[in-house]
Amino acid sequence: MTCPVIELAQQLIRRPSISPNDEGCQALMLKRLEAIGFHVEQMNFGDTLNFWAWRGDKNSQTLAFAGHTDVVPTGSETQWSSPPFAPKIRDGMLYGRGAADMKGSLAAMVIAAERFVAEHPNHKGRLAFLITSDEEASAVNGTVKVVETLMARQERVDYCLVGEPSSTDRVGDVVKNGRRGSITANLRIHGTQGHVAYPHLADNPVHRALPALQELVATEWDKGNEFFPATSMQIANIQAGTGSNNVIPGELFVQFNFRYSTELDDVQIKQRVQALLERHELRYTIEWNLSGRPFLTPKGELVDAVVSSIQHHTAVTPQLLTTGGTSDGRFIALMGTQVVELGPVNATIHKIDECVSTADLQLLSQIYQRLMEQLLA
Ligand SMILES: [Zn+2]
Q1: pLDDT in tens, 251-300
Q2: How many other C-beta atoms lie within 10 A of the C-beta of residue 160?
Q3: Which residue in 23, 135, 136, 360 is the catalytic one?
Q4: Ligand 1 centroid to 223 CA: how many Å?
């Protein structure tokens, strides 16, 4: 007999919810949550299904669990050892798209809530779920919109655990207590197109840009701090040229991205880049796209409770890290909420043959339940 966490994870994996589709995952979760007394509010925006569900006293201390039902595309299905939407257990590992990111976590949360409510039907505070179907793709109509709605009516959310797969080797070995910011620059350096044999009649933007790009790459933006590694800038794309070897191009396009710490903000980054470009006397246009500001949840009630919940059920001492890509935690933190991420091992996420340890999912569910007990019992 399979355990309830694995059973529910399998039911979720069977629904091929490629972002931003939900394919009935949320309905399945909602049925379970309604059965144990959750108030449910669907908040659908555009192509995205979201819900906010809660149980307990609306005006009291609130612990929310957050996550997404959508998954990334499978890649070539024939390369999978078993079909990506037909969950299979082999050697203690549950295989399927979304097993680790993050349908396993969703199942662990729901089962943890069921067990917690059975033991503490009149728990203090409020237990909540914030679930979206648009985390992996555009993240436009998902958590960010739900958070806007909750903020507009001044809903209280003190603590939030996001079930993203944070762990490296063993479940609980890494808790993310913040994330770096991410900002992208789309830079166009303007020159004058011409014949390569007549360079005096042209102005080569590639030649003009090289020293500036060299300086951009060599710059130390900050040294990071206790919680964040140093800010990193990476060039993601460079394009120029007409395809012909006898034409000096009229324009050079460069795209670069910063993953930045709390030592910097987006305004400072823009100012420093633009000062650098001015110093090199370039003619340019630049467009910025801020995809997320950094956030940090320092040691405090939530971090302490998460760490002690992990230590209660495992022999692991979790590391607090802020590395990795952005997550929906960045939106939730805007409410002034303490936010951490704790989920299963992320070694296979987004890959062919994504999988998660069934024992880890059961452990994760116990850790989640322990967190509910610590903050709400
Ligand atoms: Zn995810």
Answers
A1: 999 999 999 999 999 999 999 999 999 999 999 999 999 988 899 999 99
A2: 24
A3: 135
A4: 28
- Separation CA 156–CA 44 (nearest Å): 21
- The kind and range of the H/E element at 289 are strand 284-292
At residue 83, φ and ψ (nearest 5 deg) are -55, 135
- How confident is the model at residue 2, as a pLDDT? 73
Asked if residue 29 lies in contact with residue 67, where contact means CB atoms within 8 angstroms, the answer is: no
91 φ, ψ to 5°?
50, 45
- 304 belongs to the catalytic site: no
Q: Are 305 and 372 in contact (CB under 8 A)?
A: no
Its pTM stands at: 0.86
Report which of 109, 110, 102, 103 is spatially closest to residue 34, judged by C-alpha positions: 110
Query: How long a stretch of residues is the chain?
Result: 377
Q: Are 163 and 138 in contact (CB under 8 A)?
A: no
Q: Which of 70, 155, 158, 164 is catalytic?
A: 70
CA gyration radius, the chain:
24
Which residues have a beta carbon within 5 Å of ligand 1, which is an ion?
Answer: 101-102, 164
Please report the sign of the dihedral spanned by the C-alpha atoms of residue 101, residue 107, residue 112, residue 114: positive
